[in-house]
Design a protein that fits this description.
Layout lengths: L1 H10 L4 H12 L14 H10 L9 E8 L3 E12 L2 E6 L13 H9 L8 H6 L6 E4 H17 L3 E3 L2 H4 L5 E8 L14 E9 L2 E4 H10 L2 E5 L2 E5 L1 H12 L7 H10 L1 E2 L2 E2 L1 E2 L1 H11 L16 H15 L4 E3 L7 H14 L7 E6 L4 H11 L5 E3 L15 E5 H6 L1 H5 L3 E6 L11 H8 L2 E7 L9 H10 L7 H15 L2 H11 L3 E2 L15 E8 L3 H19 L6 H23 L1 H5 L10 H15 L4 E5 L2 H15 L4 E3 L5 H13 L5 E5 H4 L10 E4 L6 H8 L11 E8 L3 H10 L21 H8 L3 H4 L4
Parallel strand pairs: 1-5, 6-13, 14-19, 14-20, 15-17, 15-18, 16-17, 18-19, 21-26, 22-24, 22-25, 23-24, 25-26
Antiparallel strand pairs: 1-2, 2-3, 2-4, 6-7, 7-8, 9-10, 11-12
Length: 777
């Protein structure tokens, strides 16, 4: 448009009508005649102007051939055309002898002459009818290569040149990594070990800074180097000089270790000396550490590797994130490590701090007593808690809530080790709980989590910042360097680098990997589809219409109204989800007949079949009130009341429920609140897991399923995902299943994202099919 405006101004400045006619010719269906005063020359001017932007005439295409010479490079022009006999390429001096080109030579020379402004050397070449070549020294050819050749290609000409010129090299800063003491690689702390010296990467060649500076003293712009061509402009040179002569504050110990692990600096390969290569080898392999005396357990091979790996990381000054799949025995591996510390005297003067969700306090106490009875555990919890009573206990066991409230007291104690279980409890970096956990100092920090990333990659930063403070930089730096490229664009190269630099400090094994554990039975996941009853469908449509009427009335240009809109969308989701569960949950009335809900009817049939076959089942729901309804439905159908585990249960009641379900043959069904029982519990007596209502977060769903599908499970586990047909449940589940992305690290959380959808998208997702509307009649 800028070039067209220039042309219009040049060729039609005489009259306003001329401007209008040229504009209409290009941008409207009109076909102006250009018969007004002063317009007779306009069509020719337009053609002349357009000819500047195309140099292919009468089916002839110029080919600019670039060749290497002893002193630099040369350029010559050939002509290409296609006729019935195929393609022909003719040298410019031979044009007179070609039957096809000879009649067109005047137009061809005229077209090529229009390029003299772009290539001044072309004038003499054309005057000599293409005899010889246009010769350039390397430095002279730089602007031709960087500016002229791209323009020629844009104009429709072809350019042929050596491959080395096509793969032009731009110098990049890189480095040689070394260790400060080659004889003590395994004895020093890694964050004090590495050193570096700047190098310059020229393609696959890496040279010293002095060698590069010497090279640049004698040449600039375009130069030859080992059969390759290098181009460097003034901006490149200043950037390299500033980098190599300036401060290296940004390359601290953590960054140098990341460079060593990834083998790259800003995507450019680096050189590693032998001692650094050995260091990287040590970090990628783990030698078995002898198991501590007094351990009352036989560790599986992968569990022994996990213990040895955490011990190795401690020895070199790093914390660990043990992220084994739920049920693979993370607790046993950590207890083995604590016993090892105790046997080595590390807990004589300092202590170990273990922080867990409240519901797991008893479980951890029992596991310590079972596997390492020589460990003295002090439970610090409850209203009468007193740190003075800890005495010489090796381990202080407490909850996240107590840690948050008593953070100042806990900071004053010297800790040899701090462990957090279910580390997703600190995933949000700006919460008081997360800040408290990351503020307590210890010689080593260990995080345990079956799902180190539930929703956003930022959660991983928070947990790694707890385990190895500062290793991944600030949260803002991490977002710019890793989270945004991986989550927003699916950048595989960045993801590979991320895995390389974090792999030594996070261990993730999956139950489905038969090389890890071969004796765990199979897990079958299936969607069980329910149909809305007529009453449910009518209530669904009425509630949806009323909610969408309010949402559609909101001004989406007002920030405050947008926030209100998101809240209304989430309220609508909750209402419709409750209606799909059972109308009574939404209406809060006493009309609690199970036949009013397609899901409830399907559940009762399934539960009865499970009990009749002598099996056990877990039923998960998000809502305590729905759990109470299900408890009543099942009690009436089976004649006995199922267990119900929820947030209102005391610790003693929770322990009793788990014990009864695991060991009492009569207790075959357990209803569980997803929030209260989604993690930490061992309920391997179940061979069925039923998700009555979905939270649309695969990670949370998997956590709940893993209450049954874990070590100790000797039966195949069937997972039933209840979904109501033709409702938003079916459509959102399909969307979530399609959102599993790179390394499953960016799964969208819960249903919060739905609040940002447009009104049309909401209507499409939540509306019922017409066949369901008819059931109201």
């Amino acid at each position: 448009s800028v070039m067209l405006t220039e042309m219009i101004n040049n060729c039609t400045a005489s009259t306003q009508r001329g401007y209008s006619d040229v504009y209409d010719m290009f941008f409207t269906p009109a076909q102006p005649a250009f018969d007004g005063v002063g317009q007779s020359e306009t069509p020719g001017a337009v053609k002349s102007w357009l000819d500047r932007y195309s140099i292919t005439l009468d089916g002839v295409t110029p080919i600019f051939a670039i060749d290497e010479t002893l002193t630099g490079l040369s350029m010559s022009v050939n002509l290409e055309y296609i006729d019935d006999n195929g393609a022909h390429i003719i040298d410019l001096p031979d044009m007179m002898n070609d039957d096809y080109l000879a009649p067109r030579q005047l137009n061809i020379y005229k077209s090529l002459s229009s390029l003299i402004e772009l290539i001044p050397e072309l004038e003499g070449y054309l005057n000599a009818n293409g005899a010889g070549k246009v010769n350039y020294r390397l430095q002279e050819f730089a602007p031709v290569l960087m500016e002229t050749i791209p323009t020629l290609r844009l104009l429709g000409a072809k350019v042929v040149m050596p491959k080395a010129l096509q793969d032009l090299i731009r110098p990049r800063a890189t480095m040689m990594l070394t260790t400060r003491d080659n004889d003590s690689v395994s004895m020093l702390k890694l964050d004090q070990l590495l050193d570096f010296d700047w190098r310059i990467a020229l393609g696959n060649n890496i040279i010293s800074r002095d060698e590069f500076m010497s090279m640049m003293a004698n040449a600039h712009g375009l130069m030859r180097f080992k059969n390759e061509y290098i181009y460097i402009d003034e901006a490149d040179m200043k950037r390299l000089q500033r980098l190599m002569s300036g401060s290296t504050r940004d390359l601290g110990p953590a960054q140098l270790l990341q460079i060593a692990l990834s083998g790259k600096y800003e995507n450019t390969p680096v050189l590693l000396d032998d001692s650094v290569k050995e260091l990287v080898r040590q970090l990628s392999t783990t030698a078995d550490e002898p198991l501590p005396e007094g351990l009352n357990a036989t560790l599986r091979p992968y569990q022994r590797r996990g213990f040895s790996w955490m011990w190795r990381n401690m020895q070199i000054g790093f914390g660990s994130i043990i992220a084994d799949d739920m049920g693979l025995g993370k607790t046993l591996q950590v207890i083995t490590l604590i016993l090892h510390l105790r046997n080595h005297g590390n807990l004589d003067k300092e202590r170990a701090l273990v922080v867990v969700p409240t519901g797991l306090l008893s479980n951890w106490e029992a596991e310590f007593a079972r596997f390492a009875p020589s460990i003295d555990v002090f439970r610090y919890h409850g209203p009468g808690r007193d740190l003075k009573q800890m005495g010489k206990a090796h381990v202080l066991l407490t909850s996240y809530g107590v840690m948050r409230g008593d953070c100042e007291k806990l900071r004053k104690i010297k800790w040899a080790l701090m462990v957090i279980d279910e580390a997703q409890n600190i995933k949000n970096s700006n919460t008081a709980q997360s800040e408290a956990a990351r503020s307590i100092k210890a010689s080593t920090h260990i995080a345990m989590s079956g799902t180190p990333v539930e929703n956003r990659l930022a959660e991983f930063w928070t947990i790694m910042d707890y385990a190895n403070k500062g290793y991944l930089g600030t949260e803002k730096q991490f977002s710019r360097r890793f989270a945004s490229p991986i989550q927003l664009t699916g950048d595989e190269q960045t993801a590979a680098q991320f895995r390389a630099i974090t792999a030594p400090f996070i261990m993730r094994r999956l139950k489905t990997d038969k090389s890890i554990i071969s004796d765990l039975p199979d897990k079958l996941v299936q969607n069980d589809i329910a149909q809305l009853t007529p009453r449910q469908a009518a209530l669904y449509v009425k509630t949806l219409d009323e909610a969408m009427a309010v949402i559609n009335s909101i001004d989406d240009t007002d920030a405050a109204q947008l926030f209100r809109r998101q809240g209304l969308v989430l309220q609508m989701i909750t209402a419709l989800k409750q209606i799909c569960n059972h109308p009574a949950q939404y209406l809060k009335n006493d009309d609690d007949d199970p036949v009013l809900s397609g899901k409830a009817t399907m559940l009762l049939d399934l539960v009865e079949a499970i009990v009749d076959s002598g099996e056990k089942a877990l039923i998960f729901t998000q809502y305590r009130e729905m759990g109470a309804l299900l408890q009543g439905f099942i009690a009436k159908r089976l004649g006995s009341e199922p267990l119900f585990y929820h947030g209102g249960c005391s610790i003693a009641e929770r322990n009793n429920i788990v014990d009864r379900f695991q060991h009492n043959r009569a207790d075959r069904i357990a209803i569980l609140s997803l929030k209260a029982a989604g993690t930490g519990l061992n309920l391997t007596a179940a061979s069925h897991v039923i998700h009555y209502d979905l939270w649309w977060n695969p990670a949370v769903e998997a956590q709940a399923t893993d209450r049954a599908y874990r070590i100790g499970q000797d039966k195949n586990v069937i997972v039933h995902r209840f979904i109501t047909r033709d409702t938003f449940e079916e459509r959102i589940d399909a969307m979530i299943q399609s959102k599993k992305t790179l390394a499953e690290m960016t799964v969208t959380a819960g249903e919060n994202w739905i609040g940002h959808l447009s009104n049309r998208e909401l209507t499409n997702i939540f509306s019922l099919q017409s066949s369901l509307h008819s059931t109201e009649d």
